[in-house]
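Example S7 (structure tokens).
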């Protein structure tokens, strides 16, 4: 027999409408970067995906986001798949010192980042992965979970249908624990440099399909050096941020992004293909 306990109509009372609107407008995870401010930061209970080719700056994004989170007195569980814990924490400690933070500030900030490296762990099944992640988040009362990145983790080596289930379970975990979950993905190389394609994810694309906020990240070489951009391919509940391009300001001294501004699609296309006449963005 089916369980109909959770079956309800689509109707909301006026009070319920006010509550839902307030939840969407609150800014619990504040950001100094406009790309996130435009939809009031990371959303609790939602899956956020960051998608880009190899070498597009995903590590810089991860480090920047971690720093922003701890500046706001939030705590994060960071699961990394490409380097061991010791090397990662050395890098972020070095960045903090370049920012001329005091030793006390550095300690206060970085004690809020719990780093787990796949290279140091013995997890081989999705069940072990979820049990470990859930235990740490609940026990340490952490505010956000970042998986950097899915494509190079052991999870991406699973059959495609199991990968899809893992990504759906990540979405359920965000809802269960009422936290934002951020997942980084690699894409393949695009045939046309003028295009951005969030569906070109290596392995299962389920995370991109069910994610509420999808960010396509790209790095372009120009006469001024490397320029970094992000396109908000999806911002499900915030039209102001949907289908928008932003250029990131990178500070090489600390190895992080320190600001961003909106950037027009036409100018981006021209930058990608300077010898071709820009076409309307599809």
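Recovered sequence:
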């Amino acid at each position: 027999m089916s369980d109909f306990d959770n079956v309800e109509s689509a109707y909301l009372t006026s009070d319920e409408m006010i509550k839902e609107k307030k939840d969407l407008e609150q800014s619990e995870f504040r950001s100094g970067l406009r790309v996130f401010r435009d939809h009031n930061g990371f959303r609790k209970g939602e899956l956020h995906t960051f998608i880009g080719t190899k070498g597009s700056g995903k590590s810089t994004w991860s480090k920047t986001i971690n720093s922003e989170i701890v500046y706001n007195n939030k705590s994060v569980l960071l699961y990394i798949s490409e380097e061991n814990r010791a090397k990662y924490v050395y890098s972020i400690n070095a960045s903090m010192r370049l920012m001329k933070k005091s030793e006390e500030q550095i300690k206060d900030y970085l004690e809020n980042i719990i780093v787990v490296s796949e290279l140091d762990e013995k997890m081989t099944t999705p069940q072990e992965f979820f049990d470990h992640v859930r235990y740490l988040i609940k026990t340490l009362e952490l505010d956000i979970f970042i998986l950097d990145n899915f494509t190079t983790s052991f999870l991406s080596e699973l059959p495609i249908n199991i990968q899809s289930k893992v990504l759906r379970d990540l979405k359920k975990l965000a809802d269960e624990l009422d936290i934002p979950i951020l997942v980084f993905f690699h894409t393949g190389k695009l045939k046309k440099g003028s295009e951005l394609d969030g569906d070109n994810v290596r392995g299962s694309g389920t995370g991109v399909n069910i994610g509420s906020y999808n960010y396509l990240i790209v790095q372009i070489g120009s006469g001024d050096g490397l320029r970094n951009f992000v396109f908000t391919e999806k911002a499900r509940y915030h039209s102001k941020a949907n289908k928008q391009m932003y250029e990131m300001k990178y500070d090489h001294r600390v190895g992080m992004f320190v600001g961003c501004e909106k950037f027009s699609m036409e100018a981006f296309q021209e930058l990608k293909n300077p010898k071709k006449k820009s076409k309307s963005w599809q």
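Notes on this example. The mean pLDDT is 87.
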